[in-house]
Specification:
760 residues; alpha/beta; Alpha-Beta Plaits; DHBP synthase; Nucleotidyltransferase, domain 5; 4 domains; 12-stranded mixed beta sheet; 7-stranded mixed beta sheet; 32 strands; 33% helix; binds zinc ion; binds fe (iii) ion
């Protein structure tokens, strides 16, 4: 008795060791037939004992290689084909539709064993990898994913490597980036001007230089890092100064989980994420006795920690035996440097040495950043290790879409069929070079995934560079998506949500349909449209953009709204600070509304409170005041401030006067800032709960989606989730894309897709 099945497997099944796995499985079960890659995935033709065939089908799913992601599988019965062996057949190489490319993968356990084994021919070789690990997205130039179309093409394999590459049972079978010390890339060190320093103990040399307090530019997977000793405060300060990054926290890399536990508390979910093959930076709670230099994450309770993800990282950490600061190799807001000459040119004056190599990076890719809330990931930046793995759309696309994303923290995506392919973190398009990277990356993604967009989605804001890019694309239908609608749609889309929701979209800035600046929004949202049902009270933004960089202006705007001219006599630290500023001018601005656009932004309310309590008058990066307010809050406090609703307003307006007056009273009574910060957070939770309860009455909806940059705040997010759940709501939050503007493109694509489908 023999049966035969023709099986097609879809998903991430190419370049992840799937064919050797199938070969091994068939051999083990004594089955005959063949396996090959085809444009849609993997095709298996298999025959033999019916009982063994059943086991084969089960094991195909249960025992699939670690990097494989099976999205669909079907098995058809076939007449017996009289196969006598099982073979791996050559792939079909015609251009593929929706073939997945894996993200870069951290060094696997087996490779690490070889790496540390003095008898292995790849002992301490900084570029070892296998079918289950190593660079992918950052080295691939085109599909199908084969060595010729990666930056490894220029390294012909030696006989030993070629033999492994060709052997179906070897763990390096068709491992495209495989290499060894004989045939692969090599490492060297240069001085601060890029001149090679010839040494045979490169890594020992680097180890000593780091411990001595030098800054090293290290070429990694997706670009250069700037690295230094994380224990020496003066060194970290020098790095900040040179890099022009005054305040934004830096991440550290430590050798293993145990080393991470010396610095921070690490929960089981956090440990799992840290050690995952994605190896993101995870925000962890610092221990009280955390030995990390204060300058790494000043004023922060949290520390961004990651584990090594390339063999080179392991070597450096073995040599230095201490936590290393690892921050992207760039100045201020420029894109990360990834080519040697460019890195030397741009990082001269920052790095004392360059640790570099000759395996080119094809695509730059920053580290990803995530935190764990309620045992699941809350992504803050989705990039290396995650990109370009697709995100499934709630409904398949009628035609391919390009969604251009936002202006800050930009990412874009291409959507086709059931999937959205989100780009790596591009950054702030205000910077010219970042905008160039945006344009190039869109072209690269179109080639890589062979997607020709038939429509383009973009933010409603006319001033965004991403919007201007979209509008310049000739002949494509353009769909403008309101900023907060896109935030909510992105949260709905990643949760596969099809029904309308109450969307709470709180962030810093987004262009509203009335031309005003929104940011404290409650929407009744579906993909095809939304209604603004409630929002935070609007206040003027005195000085426009400058008020974003200078929270003291926001505090004055709120005070003026509550106290009018009488605010001048308030006995507050802020007033003494403002007294030295062009304060009269400001007062006139506020009184007459000159250069003071209106905003309902929740982010600006955070800014105002931070300035009121004297925590921060000016910020160096977006969201700094809000982050510091979160860090400051005394988590044991329970009280809150008063708030109210404006009479008979449509949409409903949440008045914030009670909060401002409450904070001022507390300040005059010398209440600790940590208590005020906590009460402020608690008030926001109550606002969200009571508005959602009211909107449930109005709309009969019991589903709430939370999105926007404000929900990066774990203190607020956890309290809002628990509160809303207690109130009987189903709560959707982000776990695949960031709640900040890095997730906008997914929402734009989902909205555009539904609108196009409706248009028919
Ligand atoms: Zn490996
Ligand atoms: Zn070799
Ligand atoms: Fe936003």
């Amino acid at each position: 008795m023999r049966d035969r099945r023709k099986i097609t497997v879809q998903g991430i099944v190419q370049g992840v060791g799937f064919r050797p796995f199938v070969y091994g499985l068939a051999s083990r079960l004594g089955l005959d037939g063949m396996v090959r890659n085809d444009p849609t995935g993997v095709v298996i033709d298999v025959e033999g004992d019916p009982y063994c065939l059943e086991s084969f089908l089960r094991a195909l799913v249960d025992e699939a290689p670690p990097l494989a992601r099976i999205e669909g599988m079907c098995a058809e019965e076939q007449p017996i084909g009289h196969y006598r062996t099982f073979a791996i057949e050559p792939s079909e190489t015609r251009p593929d539709k929706n073939v997945f490319i894996t993200a870069d993968v951290a060094t696997c356990a087996e490779c690490l064993r070889e790496f540390n084994d003095p008898r292995n021919r790849r002992y301490h070789y900084p570029f070892l990898n296998c079918t289950n690990c190593g660079p992918r997205f950052t080295i691939v130039s085109a599909v199908p994913y084969d060595r010729e179309r990666t930056t490894m093409a220029k390294f012909p394999m030696c006989t030993a490597c070629q033999a492994e590459y060709d052997a179906p049972c070897d763990r390096r079978f068709h491992a495209q980036p495989t290499a060894c010390p004989l045939c692969g890339p090599r490492l060297w060190v240069t001085d601060s001007h890029g001149i090679e320093i010839s040494r045979d103990d490169t890594l020992a040399f680097i180890g000593v230089r780091i411990r001595e307090g030098n800054i090293i530019a290290v070429k990694g997977l997706g670009g250069y890092h700037l690295s230094c000793d994380g224990l020496q405060d003066d060194v970290v300060r020098r790095l900040r100064q040179r890099k022009q990054r005054e305040a934004k926290p830096l991440a550290v890399m430590v050798e293993n989980l145990e080393a991470a536990r010396h610095l921070c508390a690490v929960s089981a979910a956090e440990a799992e994420t840290l050690a995952s093959e994605r190896r993101p930076i995870v925000l962890l709670r610092k221990r009280l006795d955390c030995p990390i230099a204060e300058a790494v994450a000043p004023l922060h309770r949290h520390l961004g920690v990651m584990l090594p993800y390339t063999p080179l990282h392991y070597r450096i950490l073995q040599q230095t035996a201490r936590p290393l600061v690892m921050t992207s190799g760039n100045r201020a807001e420029e894109p990360i440097a990834y080519q040697h000459d460019d890195a030397v040119r741009r990082l001269v004056g920052i790095a004392h040495y360059f640790l570099t190599h000759n395996r080119p990076i094809f695509t730059r890719c920053d580290d990803s950043v995530t935190r764990i809330v309620f045992n699941q990931e809350l992504p803050l930046r989705r990039s290396r290790g995650y990109v370009p793995l697709p995100i499934r759309l709630p409904r398949p696309c009628t035609s391919p879409i390009l969604a251009c994303g936002g202006h800050l923290k930009n990412t874009f995506c291409l959507a086709q069929g059931e999937y959205a392919f989100l780009s790596q973190h591009i950054g702030d398009l205000e910077d010219y070079f970042t905008y160039q990277a945006f344009v190039e990356s869109i072209e690269h993604f179109q080639r890589l995934f062979d997607i020709k967009p038939q429509a383009v989605a973009y933010d409603l804001h006319p001033g965004y560079r991403s919007t201007q890019y979209a509008l310049a694309l000739q002949d494509l239908p353009c769909i403008a998506v309101q900023h907060h609608h896109a935030h909510i749609a992105s949260c709905m889309a990643e949760n596969g949500c099809l029904e309308p929701v109450i969307g709470v979209a709180w962030d810093g800035t987004g262009y509203g349909t009335d031309g005003r600046i929104w940011g404290g929004e409650f929407l009744l949202a579906s993909y095809t449209g939304f209604e603004r049902l409630a929002h935070l009270e609007e206040v003027p933004l005195p000085g426009g953009e400058r008020a974003i960089r200078q929270p003291w202006r926001m505090a004055l705007a709120y005070l003026y709204r509550c106290y009018g001219e009488a605010m001048a006599s308030l006995d507050l630290e802020l007033m003494r600070f403002a007294g030295h500023r062009p304060w009269r001018v400001m007062q006139q601005m506020l009184a007459r509304g000159i250069n003071s656009p209106w905003t309902s932004s929740a982010g600006r309310l955070f800014d105002a409170i931070a300035a009121l309590i004297g925590l921060r008058y000016e910020v160096q990066y977006e969201g700094q005041a809000a982050v510091e307010l979160e860090m400051l809050a005394d988590e044991s406090a329970v009280k809150s401030y008063a708030f109210s609703f404006a009479d008979d307003c449509k949409p409903l307006v949440v008045k914030t006067e009670g909060i401002i007056r409450g904070v001022v009273d507390d300040l005059l009574n010398e209440a600790p800032a940590s208590l005020i910060a906590a009460k402020f957070h608690a008030t926001l939770v109550e606002i969200i709960r009571s508005v959602c309860a009211y909107l449930r009455e109005l709309t009969n909806l019991r589903q709430v989606a939370l999105s926007g940059g404000v929900f990066q705040n774990a203190l607020l997010l956890t309290a809002v989730i628990s509160g809303l759940r207690d109130d009987g709501f189903t709560v959707y939050t982000h776990r695949l894309v960031p709640p900040n503007d890095g997730g906008l493109c997914l929402g734009q694509a989902a909205v555009a897709n539904e609108i196009l489908a409706k248009r028919g």
